[in-house]
């Protein structure tokens, strides 16, 4: 594909061809420029503060593109977040609020497929997907290697995967297997006349994490992770349901430290996979013509706020994620951007760079102004984070909430409970709720107005 790309004509030019017009194109009719490929990498439950354990990915994507320091997922749960990535929609609009909810919304993949892109999935599609004659792979994908809904699909070793509609047992380490399929896809895609889209979504580093062979000896001297908000003594500024959380037990703390080490070890295999996929793109002459996104579907608690594991809530450890975009034609020099962005911005960015109009239902915005380093980017005033905490690990269920994230502040309203306002510049661990502080009266009013504005189009929590 590095030699020839399909070029699209304007509607007027296509009409002339359809009418049998043999005359040259009018001088004001031009072919659209070469369309880029897209590689979207979605890690599973990877925290924003773990990229140091993926040095090759850090160097090749984050340090060669634009790294977003304040990137969030609008619902910190696997399926809702992945649905938002694929649609550019908030969960209250695509209606995937829980992992078990069905997903039938129009996606970026369908539109790229209709526009002539060669499309592939390697890994999780939203969550899992059956492998049966009654449930064939989605037709918009030309290549499909998915997690099945069977018990062995998410196994780190010897998984059963949905290979183009057939449940197929595999031998080996899951991340390595998926990596090899991604490399195969790129090999096939590079022989097409069309650009390609690949969604690479491995299970790593989701718990229960199991590192690749030999990686279980990494980080033998890893210090315990106990930041100021780890198992805090004072929960008085939190919603009532959180104030009632027990202190973490010694056994829970030991388990958290073990889970953390295994997750960080597991990231090494993912780092290797990303590196080899980029090597393949480079070998095929496609690397610099491919827009590479790296993001996680959500973060994970490691004992912060007395939450032993899990996600869903809007605190930094759960909703903030690593996020970077590499695309040299627009980002020739690496840089870091601190504006608040979100997973809902990936789909509209892809529409924009592919030259496609975004559907009317898209909630996110194209990241092009940041990629181009626009000195005065037009951007939204706030980002909404929302959650419906049902069946949360070690917590059970708690009231739904809605959060406004903008600038250095985060404001949350939990149904029937205490609201929260945090100044993340002064209080990055979210220990001091400023909801009743006279110093933050103006900020509180502004963020209450933001949330009231957001609620004009969505149900109250």
Mean pLDDT: 91
- Cα distance spanning the termini: 48 Å
Morphology call: globular
* Strand order, largest beta sheet: 7-6-5-4-8-1-9-10-2-11
**CATH fold category name of the largest domain:** Alkaline Phosphatase, subunit A
Radius of gyration: 23 Å
Main sheet attributes: strand count, strand direction, barrel closure: 10 strands, mixed
| CATH architecture designation of the largest domain | 3-Layer(aba) Sandwich
Give your account of this protein's structure.
- The chain has 461 residues and is α/β, with parallel strands linked by helices.
- It has twelve helices and 16 strands.
- It folds into two domains: 1-34, no CATH class; 35-381, Alkaline Phosphatase, subunit A.
- Helix 2 crosses helix 8 (250-283) and helix 6 (174-189) runs parallel beside helix 8 (250-283).
- The longest helix has 34 residues, at 250-283.
- The N and C termini lie far apart (48 Å).
- Mean pLDDT is 91; it is low at 1-32.
């Amino acid at each position: 594909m590095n030699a020839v790309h399909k070029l699209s004509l304007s509607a007027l030019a296509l009409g002339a061809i359809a009418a049998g017009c043999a005359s040259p194109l009018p001088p004001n009719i031009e072919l659209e420029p070469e369309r880029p490929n897209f590689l979207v990498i979605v890690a599973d439950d990877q925290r924003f503060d773990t990229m140091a354990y993926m040095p090759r990915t850090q160097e090749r994507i984050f340090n060669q593109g634009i790294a977003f320091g304040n990137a969030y997922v609008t619902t910190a749960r696997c399926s809702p977040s992945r649905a938002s990535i694929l649609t550019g929609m908030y969960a209250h609009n695509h209606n995937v609020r829980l992992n078990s909810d069905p997903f039938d919304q129009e996606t970026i993949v369908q539109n790229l497929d209709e526009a002539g892109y060669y499309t592939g999935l390697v890994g999780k599609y939203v969550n899992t997907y059956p492998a049966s004659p009654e449930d064939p792979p989605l037709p918009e994908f030309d290549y499909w290697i998915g997690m099945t809904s069977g018990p062995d699909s998410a196994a780190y070793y010897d998984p059963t995967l949905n290979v183009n509609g057939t449940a197929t047992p595999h031998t080996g380490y899951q991340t390595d297997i998926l990596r090899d399929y991604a490399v195969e896809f790129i090999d096939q895609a590079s022989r097409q006349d069309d650009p390609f889209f690949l969604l690479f979504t491995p299970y790593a580093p989701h718990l229960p994490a199991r590192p690749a062979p030999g990686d279980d000896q990494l980080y033998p001297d890893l210090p315990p992770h106990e930041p100021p908000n780890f198992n805090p003594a004072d929960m008085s500024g939190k919603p009532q349901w959180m104030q009632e959380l027990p202190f973490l037990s010694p056994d829970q703390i030991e388990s958290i430290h073990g889970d953390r080490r295994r997750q960080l070890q597991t990231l090494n295999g993912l780092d290797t996979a990303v590196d080899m996929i980029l090597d393949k793109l480079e070998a095929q002459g496609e690397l610099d013509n491919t827009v590479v996104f790296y993001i996680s579907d959500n973060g994970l608690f490691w004992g912060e706020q007395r939450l032993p594991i899990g996600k869903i809530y809007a605190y930094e450890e759960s909703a903030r994620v690593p996020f970077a975009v590499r695309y040299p034609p627009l980002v020739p020099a690496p840089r870091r951007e601190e504006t608040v962005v979100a997973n809902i911005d990936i789909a509209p960015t892809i529409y924009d760079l592919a030259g496609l109009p975004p559907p009317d239902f898209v909630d996110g915005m194209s990241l092009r102004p940041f990629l181009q380093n626009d000195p005065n980017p037009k951007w939204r005033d706030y980002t909404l984070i929302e959650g419906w905490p049902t069946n949360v690990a070690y917590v059970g269920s708690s009231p739904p909430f809605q959060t406004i994230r903008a600038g250095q502040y985060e404001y949350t309203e939990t149904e029937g409970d205490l609201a929260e306002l945090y100044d993340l510049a002064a209080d990055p661990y979210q220990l001091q709720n400023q909801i009743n502080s006279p110093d933050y009266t103006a900020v509180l009013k502004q963020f209450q107005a933001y949330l009231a504005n957001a609620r004009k189009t969505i149900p109250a929590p």
